[in-house]
Amino acid sequence: FFTLLIAHITFCLPFVVVTVYSRLNGFDVKMLEAAKDLGASEWVILKQIILPLAKSAVAAGWLLSFTLSLDDVIISSFVTGPTYEILPLKIYSMVKVGISPEVNALATVMLIVSLVLVVISQLLAREKVK
């Protein structure tokens, strides 16, 4: 389990870092200086200024890394042992044999979950604009 976890973290972490870094790159440092001048501690600055600004980028990075992790069958097949059966490998082994109703049902559930997540993210983005 730990080898699979480390492999997926190593594979997905650069995507999350680039997403969050690009969001924080345009951040105005004067806000941090103003918070320090007003007596805010480092923890308060992180909690009340930096994290709310980076929240959308962290969510986008999480969704991107989740999608990449779910899609990456090759890394999973190399690093898992015979005792673990994870979803990408299960789908791959089911499709190798042939398309069955179970594969179709699983693909439908995954598609519906993806669409629900996209709709929720669009609704949240629309509320943020107002």
From TrEMBL:
Listed GO biological process terms: transmembrane transport
Main location: membrane
UniProt-annotated location(s): Cell inner membrane; Cell membrane
Membrane topology note: Multi-pass membrane protein
Transmembrane helix recorded as keyword: yes
Cellular component terms per the entry's GO annotation: plasma membrane
Residue spans crossing the bilayer: 6-24, 103-125
Domain ABC transmembrane type-1: from-to ranges: 1-121
InterPro entries: Bact_Polyamine_Transport (IPR051789), MetI-like (IPR000515), MetI-like_sf (IPR035906)
Pfam families given in the database record: BPD_transp_1 (PF00528)
Presence of the UniProt keyword Cell membrane in the record: yes
Gene3D superfamilies: MetI-like
PROSITE patterns in UniProt: ABC_TM1
UniProt keyword annotations, A-Z: Cell inner membrane, Cell membrane, Membrane, Transmembrane, Transmembrane helix, Transport
Entries under SUPFAM superfamilies matching the protein: MetI-like
Known role: Required for the activity of the bacterial periplasmic transport system of putrescine and spermidine.
Family named by the database record: Belongs to the binding-protein-dependent transport system permease family. CysTW subfamily.
Protein's name according to its UniProt entry: Spermidine/putrescine transport system permease protein PotC
Organism: Vibrio parahaemolyticus
